[in-house]
Amino acid sequence: MFVDPVGGYNRSNRNGVSNVPTASDRRRLGPFGRWANAALLTVVLLAGAAGPAAARDVTDSVGRKVQVPDRVERVMAAGPPASVLVYMLAPEKMIGWNTRPREAELPYLNPQVRDLPEIGRLTGRGNTASLETVMKAKPDVIVDFGNVNPTYISLAERTQSQTGIPYLLIDGHFGRTVEALRLLGSILGVSERAETLARRTEAIFHAVDEASRAVPAAQHPRVYLARRANGLESGNRGSINTEIIERAGGINVVDAGREGGGLVAVSLEQVLRWNPDTIITADRNFVSEAKSNSAWAGVEAVKKQRIFRSPTLPFGWIDGPPSVNRLLGLQWLSHLFFPKSSPGDIRGDARDFYRLFYQVNLSDAELDRLLQ
């Protein structure tokens, strides 16, 4: 039976059969029937009056005006950097991971997010989430965190237009981490937590900057970031992948002969010409390669045994992915570059960071495994 909120009963249902009650119907239903029909009419009227969910306009990092629900409860991250940011701010609002965490990563993640499904990614290399997948997941908003150049703006506009789901671009450059935390925190309705993380970020930046300034520029390390097993991919100066090294006070030796950042393929001959005194890597295989391959023996960092492999659980400390996880990597680099002027110790820094940002308390064994 269908009810018309204005005229009472519709004259027929979807099969064309009359819904208008007869006199015998009214006698049979009696007072209860009249009450039930009135109650149903009230429900319909209230539902119509409620209308669509309340919404508000927000402005993302590139100045786009985006209308989002007044209460955001389901968030999809467009790529791994955004996953980290959303996880740190509001793990309860995540609807899934771009790539399901590996077994080794699970102890370093909050239990409430360990079993979330894999939903793919919209950005970066090998995007795997189709528009159908996105719409089926029914997020309230999509968040992208990282570069905000025209390519990503175009993707955001196209995806939002095709799905009808609000798509937010948050600037992921390292120096703007504080602003990113506060901006997304306000949008997701977790401003108090965002402020806590933002203030801690400011304190980390200040301590690292002070440690760097305490050492003469001529004594700052000349650093090469070695990516992949052969170590022959790196980040150009200013790259989102290497800006953490530069912020910590290291001199990035990679000069690709062009302005702007980005990943670059290099030759071993170029590395020998740059001759870094310090090499940073996240790849266990590269450490073995550099020590066993005589071609690397001429690099000063190899001669001095200054090859440092950064921890990677649950996320890389340098750039895997380039998100807020890099804050701990910044502290780690500061201790490596300027051990005499950096306050505290990396073990204590790591324990505090995981408790506050990842919301997990590390055991001594987990901390040992992380820092080995």
β-strand number: 13
CATH class of the largest domain: Alpha Beta
Name the helicity range: 40-55%
Average pLDDT taken over every residue: 87
Count of discrete alpha- or pi-helical segments spanning 4 or more residues? 13
What low-confidence regions span 5 or more consecutive residues with pLDDT below 50? 1-52
- Cα end-to-end separation: 69 Å
Largest sheet: 4 strands, parallel
Structural class: alpha/beta
Whole-number radius of gyration?
28 Å
Shape: globular
Question: Would you kindly provide a written description of the structure presented here, covering whatever features stand out?
Answer:
This protein is of the alpha/beta class. The protein contains 13 helices and 13 strands. The strands form five sheets. A four-stranded parallel β-sheet has the order 10-8-12-13. Strands 5-6-7 form a three-stranded parallel β-sheet, sandwiched between helices. Strands 1-2 form a two-stranded antiparallel sheet. Helix 6 runs parallel beside helix 11 (326-337) and helix 11 packs antiparallel against helix 12. The termini are far apart. The model is unreliable at 1-52 (pLDDT under 50).
